[in-house]
Amino acid sequence: MPVRSIVRLGHPALRTPAQPVVAERLSDPEMQALVDDMFETMLAAGGVGLAAPQIGLSLQLFVYAVVDPDAEPAAEGEEADDPELVALINPALEPIAGELVYDWEGCLSIPDLRGLVPRHFGVRVHALDRHGKILDYRAEGYAARIVQHEYDHLNGVVFLDRMRDMRSLAFGAEWEEFLTESDDEDAQVG
Ligand code: NI
Prior knowledge:
- It contains 4 helices and 7 strands, in the order αβββββααβαβ.
- By secondary structure, the protein is α+β, with helices and mostly antiparallel strands.
- The protein has a domain at 12-68 and 83-97 and 119-160: Alpha-Beta Complex (Peptide Deformylase).
- Strand 3 (84-107) and strand 4 form a beta hairpin.
- The radius of gyration is 16 Å and the shape is globular.
- Bound molecules: nickel (II) ion.
- Residues 107-109, 149, 153, 190 line the site of nickel (II) ion (NI).
């Protein structure tokens, strides 16, 4: 499965609303190969989410990994659990009422920068899975943040647009040195 190249800020694909996927196309082996390539590309880049516009494709499709940032690291000699990988096609998000929460984000298309971004704590997700099955579920906390970040990519929006105060913007090394509270934390990057 080939790793695709990730486009960076300035590429018009990141600023163009993506086209819906025709559901019948999901049975096309090329579409299934694309979803596999996106997982591969995301994992190879060390991200937790990747949207089709980030590989230059105008499709309402993104993938993400369900990871628990507060999970205990695997003990020595133990394998860490593989994250659950999810692909969402033609997603729609419904915010669940509540206060916005701020947390750090980064983006594979905006290498090395981190910033504090407000997001809904919870969202209801309507989408198709990679086989065309209808999905309807709630995502909360970290997973909801990833879903909102990737969903934005389908609308030509990046996390910088969501920041309320650009003064938190930082490069990775400085962020780690000055801005994180503990050394095992990491900003989600998608
Ligand atoms: Ni991103």
